[in-house]
UniProtKB/TrEMBL annotation:
GO terms for biological process: fructose 6-phosphate metabolic process. The keyword Transit peptide does not apply. GO terms for molecular function: 6-phosphofructokinase activity; ATP binding; metal ion binding. It catalyses: beta-D-fructose 6-phosphate + ATP = beta-D-fructose 1,6-bisphosphate + ADP + H(+). Residues 1-85, 580-685 are annotated as: Disordered. Residues 1-22, 57-66 have a biased composition (Polar residues). GO terms for cellular component: cytoplasm. The keyword Electron transport does not apply. This is Phosphofructokinase domain-containing protein. Residues 633-647 have a biased composition (Basic and acidic residues). Residues 214-529 form the Phosphofructokinase domain. Catalyzes the phosphorylation of D-fructose 6-phosphate to fructose 1,6-bisphosphate by ATP, the first committing step of glycolysis. Keywords: ATP-binding, Glycolysis, Kinase, Magnesium, Metal-binding, Nucleotide-binding, Transferase. It comes from Pycnococcus provasolii.
Length: 706
């Protein structure tokens, strides 16, 4: 494929020509300073830009400040083996001796735009037709083949001067390139990766109105709000804008290609197979599955069923499958466009701004967080615990906590924690309980898995098995944490009312909210326009607020995670003021992690707990019994011989974690506990503290059934 950025008559950039290439992966979409420049060997690139263009003083405020921007010919030697198109812009700022009254300062930075193009059918299919777009005539809606999405904005390489936004970006990069006080000429280079902009092109590769297109849509992996909307919009765009009538749904994921009949889909109101109102429902009406991917069988089925545009909705696993399909299609030299729409409720595809359904999930999570907060606030020593989805990435947990502002501690897979010990979650929860009489914790499902490994005698998650797609099955951190927190809080003398909510599946099964719904539409249309143009092996995404197309390897190159060093996590900490729940190496070892043994971990659970400058040692003897009503009753015996019931809960198999044997009660411990409670300042708190000493029933009165 050749993308030609042809110069318009008044263009400052002359011609940038980009030769065909295959997979193109050149860097990282984030800040230019953090770009990693990876070059694949099988690509060829020629980029030429000539002519320094003059400042016309009109295009933007920066231009009128005598800024000169020119395009430069890129050095062959530097890029000859690269698979990227390089367009270089040089920004210069000169201060003359006369102006400054000092030495000449001449600063320049060159900015390289690396075009990360996506494969095109033309790369392996000779004599591909190029037909005019059948419906869109409005030039404003047609994407120019020279439009690319870069880190912060859209650059049109045919264009004239960068717009003011682009100038600001150049300005920022320029500023970063120079050390303060530099007085000598210095040139730095910055690289910006850009992607083809999404949208309808003036010419397409299929004769869609004459029935050449036979499209298939498949959805794979877990559910996510908006899947039905994406399917509907794929059909709508094919049907309305390209006149396609042969559109088929593939049932139940990849395996449906070769094991199920296709389902004809259409946009006709009330007709069988109509998707017109599908967006109102959660889930995917096509069905989805994990596992069952066999590239040969899938591509055989594509050939056999004469499909030539395949739309694949799914997460990173699905994208790997789609890439395998694409490679097989290319190997067989088929005229088949493979187009993806990234779907992941975890928001863990780093290359794109966010995934559809994520906002909805965060919004829906508010309901559970609010409920847990109300429960916690409404009970003495109330602790709310909410588990949210997030296998490797804690985005839902972090964003939901940020949005709620009621969450005291948010635990995510990216940030290690311990429950017990002076720096543990329990100590912090105890602190918040002392301050506020209630506390709220949110935990992402992938958090704390290593701790549970230790709890389970070093057996790793891997040994628990994998799902059909090969994903490791996780232990239930919610139930585990509920148990651990209660145990630790009891040990330091706090009787807590713990309420645990697990809304994970109900969050992902709902239809999308308004903003996700619009987002689904744009992603789906981007995929259709890209496929109709002849791109294949790509995904549709939004990068820095602009819709674009990314090659599949690029899209899934990085798993998106919450970086504890970066802004998202910092904002959380700034908002809820939660400390790090992670001790030093010694402490980690004491918890049986990073070299320690599980028995070390168990022992450490009985260690004295330091809260601020106080040390609180476990002081109760906790026992577990079962009531005749089938409830588990956790109680402890006090020094004075009275029995205190902490909790009674319906027994479920996963909630029957072992009870540790805490250290025996001593008078000193009891004394410390009372001292701790006396720290509560208000009269009411003191009354409540007194009450603690005399209460022998829990609120449900389950003592009757012991
Ligand atoms: N490495 C791979 N190569 C080919 N196919 C794969 C690969 N990994 C997963 N798949 C296939 O992709 C499909 C979906 O994968 P998976 O269950 O991992 O979900 P996912 O796409 O990652 O979505 P989710 O984010 O919901 O987990 C399955 O049919 C699986 O067999
Ligand atoms: O649907 P399943 O197989 O229970 O998988 C649940 C997983 O799917 C996701 O929703 C998406 O990957 C994860 O958050 C979660 O770990």
């Amino acid at each position: 494929m050749a993308i030609l950025a042809t110069a318009s008559s008044h263009s400052r950039y002359h011609t940038a020509s980009v030769s065909p290439r295959n997979s193109a992966i050149h860097g990282h979409r984030q800040h230019p300073c953090r770009h990693r420049n990876r070059r694949s060997s099988n690509a060829r690139v020629h980029a030429s830009m000539e002519e320094e263009y003059a400042n016309d003083g009109e295009s933007s405020p920066l231009w009128s400040q005598s800024r000169r921007v020119r395009a430069e010919h890129s050095s062959e030697s530097e890029y000859e083996s690269a698979d990227m198109a390089v367009l270089t812009t040089r920004q210069e700022e000169g201060v003359s001796e006369e102006d400054s009254g000092t030495n000449t300062t001449s600063r320049s930075a060159s900015v390289e735009y690396l075009l990360d193009d996506v494969p095109h059918l033309r790369d392996w299919h000779d004599n591909l037709e190029s037909l005019p777009h059948p419906s869109i005539k409005n030039p404003a809606h047609i994407v120019d083949e020279g439009d690319y999405v870069v880190a912060t904005t859209v650059v049109n390489f045919h264009g004239c001067a960068p717009n003011s936004e682009e100038c600001t970006e150049l300005e920022n990069m320029s500023a970063m390139s120079f050390k303060a006080g530099d007085s000598n000429t210095e040139q730095k280079s910055q690289k910006i990766v850009c992607f083809p902009r999404a949208g309808p092109r003036a010419n397409i590769a299929f004769d869609s109105v004459r029935g050449e297109v036979r499209a298939a849509i498949v959805s794979c992996g877990g559910l996510c709000p908006g899947m039905n909307t994406v399917i509907r919009e794929l059909v709508a765009c094919l049907w309305n804008q390209y006149g396609v009538r042969d559109i088929f749904g593939v049932k139940n994921g990849f395996r449906g290609f070769y094991s199920e009949n296709l389902v004809p889909l259409n946009m006709q109101p009330n007709a069988a197979g109509s998707v017109a109102t599908m967006h109102r429902n959660g889930g995917t009406f096509l069905g989805t599955s994990r596992g069952g991917f066999d590239v040969n069988k899938v591509v055989d089925a594509i050939e056999h069923r004469r499909l030539n545009t395949v739309f694949v909705i799914g997460g990173d696993g699905t994208h790997k499958g789609a890439q395998a399909m694409f490679e097989e299609v290319r190997r067989r030299k088929l005229k088949v466009a493979i187009a993806c729409v990234p779907k992941t409720i975890d928001n863990d595809i780093a290359a794109i701004d966010k995934s559809f359904g994520f906002d909805t999930a965060v919004e829906e999570a508010q309901r559970s967080i609010r409920a847990a907060h109300v429960e916690a606030e409404s009970a003495p020593m109330g602790v709310g615990l909410v588990k949210l989805m997030g296998r490797h990435s804690g985005f839902i947990a972090v964003h939901s906590s940020l949005a709620s502002r009621d969450v005291d501690a948010t635990l995510i897979p990216e940030v290690p924690f311990v429950v017990s010990g002076p720096n543990g979650v329990a100590a912090f929860v105890a602190q918040r309980l002392m301050q506020n009489d209630h506390a709220l914790v949110v935990v992402a499902e992938g958090a704390g898995q290593d701790l549970m490994d230790v709890e389970h005698n070093g057996k790793s998650n891997d040994e628990l098995g994998r799902d059909a797609s090969g994903n490791i099955v996780f232990r239930d951190v919610g139930l585990w944490l509920k148990h651990e927190l209660r145990k630790e809080l009891n040990r330091i003398g706090l009787d807590v009312n713990m309420k645990y909510l697990d809304p994970t599946y109900s969050i992902r099964a709902i239809p999308p909210n308004a903003s996700d719904s619009v987002y689904c539409t744009l992603l789906a249309h981007g995929a259709v326009h890209g496929a109709m143009y002849g791109f294949s092996g790509f995904t549709s995404g939004r990068v820095n607020e602009r819709h674009c197309l990314l090659s599949i390897p690029r899209a899934i190159e990085h798993l998106g995670v919450v970086d504890p060093q970066m802004r998202t996590y910092s904002r959380l900490i700034e908002s809820n003021n939660q400390p790090a729940f992670w001790g030093d190496d010694h402490e980690r070892q004491a918890h049986g992690l990073g070299g320690g043994t599980s028995s070390d971990a168990n022992n450490s659970l009985r260690r004295p707990l330091v809260m601020g400058n106080r040390t609180v040692t476990p002081h109760r003897h906790t026992t577990t019994s079962f009531s005749s009503a089938g409830r588990r009753v956790v109680s402890d015996r006090r020094a004075d011989g009275t029995q205190h019931i902490h909790d009674s809960i319906a027994v479920t198999h996963s909630d029957e974690a072992d009870e540790d044997e805490p250290a025996p009660i001593s008078d000193a411990d009891e004394h410390r506990r009372k001292k701790l409670l006396r720290k509560k300042k208000s009269k009411e708190d003191e009354i409540w503290a007194e009450g603690l000493n005399t209460t022998t029933l829990d609120s449900s009165g389950t003592i009757d059934s012991i």
